[in-house]
Structures are given as structure tokens and as C-alpha cells.
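pasting for the record
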Amino acid sequence: MRKAFLLLSVSMLLPAGLLYGCGSGKEAVETGNIEEKEDSALSMEKELERLTRGDVCLDAEKLENYASGFALCYEDVSEQMVYSLEMPQIPQSDDAYLYLFAMECYEDVQTLAGEPAASGLKGTDCEICFPYEEEYLFEQFIPALQIDGKYVSLGEGIYLSNPEALADNKEEYPEPDSKKGLLLDPTMLGTEELTDLGVKHAIYNIPLSIIMGDTTDETFPTIVYTYKGKSYHFNGAAINGYDGLFTYLTSMDMCSTAIVLNDWNDNYIEMIHPDARNKDSGAFYYMFNTAEEEGVKELEAVACFLTERYSSGEYGIVHNWVVANEINQFKTWNYMDTEDAAYYAQEFEKAFRIFYQAAKSNYANSRVYFSIDHDWYSNQGDSKEYFNARDLVEVFQDAAIQHGNYDWGIAIHPYPDPLTRVNYWSQEYDKTQNAPILSIMNLGVLTDFLKQEKYLDRKGEVRSIMITELGFTSVSGERLQAAAFAYCYYIVEANPYIDAFIMNRQTDAPEELLQGLAFGIYEYDHTEKYLKDVFSYIDTEEASEYTDFMLNILGAESLEEALGWAK
């Protein structure tokens, strides 16, 4: 806990009627009349006594949730933090002040010890201004009164709500010509095998084990990044590879998305949550550590390093960040040893918010997502293997709203069930909120869910949704695969709530081929499939020439008829 400062002291208090707000003190009346000064001081003393006495006497239990309307923002002009809250009446306390405590996500907020970060006068409408400090970006501010010599909380801690105000890069979010995207094959960068495809959205993974730590590469030596006085090391060779990737994608006017994955790393075990440290779990990725100081600081450093590096344009720009993979699949893709969805979401939300704050404070209009798979409501209450995606979105938002709403987005993977199914349109789909599977044919299940007032973003709008992974295998035929893609693309293009459709993948992956999943536009040896021209031209004026064959396969008279099936 840092040493605090008081925004206002008794000697700095304004005259009655000017006690609240963010005034600089210039409003104070200057006079040479000693009697007027004495009257003003007496009036101030009485006001302090009144505020101390308050309007109501409440015990600690009733004070716990007494305040409401919490807000914390950064003001560009004054370069100040502005905190505000409301109370029905002014509670009695030891003095006339409301105190703010700045605490990390891993700290026990039930114990308000040490010095407060700022203070101001109590009131039914309180507003406290104080200078911004770098560490405030990731800290929550908890309001308290001093009662019988102890600090008593008035409500939940909230985080800075507009980190984008701190960003150097305030460029608008790009508006690509279409929603067409692709998981890239890095061996095809700069070749016609990529440029011919007309990709508008590109996605790539960043497993942390690849970028963290030292390297002996003399050409691309270790990058030392200093964060809050401590040095963090990043693999220069690996980072150079990402620099080249994102620089290229930016030069090609592609909207770039990076997925940050917390895989096992013996050298950075502190990055993994204490409840997830089981190397033999069989999981691919693990829950971030938001329970311990060392892990939190490491995560903050990683988030700041990546979002800072890929926001200025010097090394390309990442427009979208996806934190973790398919988080409802907690046994496999974001491991944590718990069956408590609320606790799981609470710990993940802390990590997600850290990355969100970092991303938005570097590139104001960047977007940050978490991903879910197609298991919307299929586990029938048995959370031993995975959580329902619907349940997890609910408890994630509960955790988020508790500390201040922000503009998180959802990255979905609405694969058919099973994954090897290609003619997904031939199935019947539940289109209620109890639908077991979320697929391309019932996207309204998700969008209707997010239209609820509870889930709207800060502007009162439906949150950003991207399809960041979805593919169709060619094992049953290349024309069938191409028809499945084309129909899917048209469904997404017609849906105003889906911002992008990023297809899995450019080239068949050997590990997926073993499961009968030949998702690529190209075979593993780079041989073109029928899908190649369909993908290339689907968002051009020549689209119908390459996609009309789809209608015969679907059994539809027109595209309008086919689109009606997915509503």
C-alpha cells in the first residue's frame, strides 16, 4: 500500500457551498478584511462539524453497501482521476471525510489498512479529484469512512472506466470491406497463396511460453522491458517474428487479431493460478494467476509490453486481443481445478480486465474478447468436464459489473456438432436460450441473450461479437466444404451483430487431419482445394459466379430462402 495524500486538508477547504467537486481552490474569496476571514473560518469549522455528525448513524454492516452510483474516470484536460458516488444521507463518522483506498486485485479488500490514496469531503453526491499515477490503471478504488479509528468500506471497489483516455493511439477502428477472415499459415506470408485470397481479418496465436524469457540469438537478443521498476525478459527472436507478422498484416490493411494463451512454462510458474498448477492435467492452457502479487505483476508487464508494442504502428498494429481460448472448457483450454463457475469467472475476469486496461490505454479503439465454444447449454448441470457457455457469460458479467462495467466482447466458435459434420443446415436447431449447441444456424440465441439490458456495453449497445474460429472439413468432399463455407459466410454477412468471420484455417493441420478435420483452403502440401476460389471471390462483385453451386447442395431455390432457415 502506497503512502497516501489528501486532496483536501482543513487549511485548503473552500467556503460553504463550494465544498464539493473538483475545484482548484481559486473560487475561494480573497479579502483583506480580517473579520471576514475569521467568519469564513468559523463557518468552515461548523460545516466540518456538521459533516462529521452527518444525517444518520449506521454500523459497519449497514455501511457496507450504503453508497451507490460509483464512477471513476480520467479527465484529459485536468489530467486528474475523478471519483464519484452517491449516498441517501450523510453517515456519521470520525471526521468530515470520505477516503479512497487503491488496492490490487489480489489484495484482501475486506481489510482497509495503511494510508488512503485520496480523500475529499463527505456528501450525498461526493466527487474527489486526484492526480493520475501509472499504477492506478490496474487498481480498484474502494470508498471508506473512518469510524472509531478504523476504516469501514461503503461499497465495492471500481476500476478506471475509460483507460482509452490515456492512449497515445486514438485512431479509429478499421472498417474492412467485408467480414472475411482467416487463421493464417505463416509460411505463406507475402506469397500469392495469401494475397490472392483477399483476406480482410487475420488471426494468430501468442503462447506466452514462446515469447517470455531470454534468448542466445545474437541477431535478435533478449528484449528487456522495464515495468514498475522491475525488468522483464522477452525472447527477441520470437518477438521479431511477431513484429514481422503484424507489420505485414498492417501493410496489407488487414484487421489483426492476436490470441494470448497461457501455456505451461516451468520457468514462469508464477503465471499460472495456484489452483491450476497441475502439469499432468492434460490441459493445453491454464488460468492466469490473479491470486498472487508476483503473478499479477508478471501479467501486467506482459499485457503492457504486448499492447504497447503493437499499438504504435512501429511493429504493426493489433486491433483485437482475445484473452485465452474457449474458457468454458476449463479442463482443456483454460485449466483450473474447480467446478465452481462463479469462482472460476471471478478469477478469469481479473486477468481479463488487466489485459483490457492495458490494451485500451495504448490503443483507444482496440477491442478485447474472451472466447467460448459451441456448448451453450449442454452439460445439464454437470460441470465436471466443462461449464455451459451461457452460464459462464452470466457469471463473468456478474464479476465484471461488480467493479464497473466495461466493453468486453465475445469471440465464438460455433462449430457444427460433431466437428466433422459439414451439412450443418440439414439439422434442426433449438433457438431458445436453452439451446444445447450454439451454431451458425442459431446465432440469434447469443445475440438475443446479449440484447438484454444487463449485458449491454457502456453505450447501451450490443457488445462486439466475432467468430474467431470455425471451419468445415473437406474429407466428405471439397465442393461440400466450399458450400458450407459460402453459406456460413452469407449468414454472417447478413447478421449486423457479428463483426467478423475468421475461418479455421489456411492450410490443413496434421494434428487435425488425424481427427478427420481437413479445414484448410489448401492441403498440407499447399495444393489448392475447391474452396480457394470460393473464399477469394465471395466478397467481390463476381461472387455469384463462384457460389451459385451452393444452392443445389443446400436444396434451396434462392439465397434469401436459405438465409431464412438461419433466422
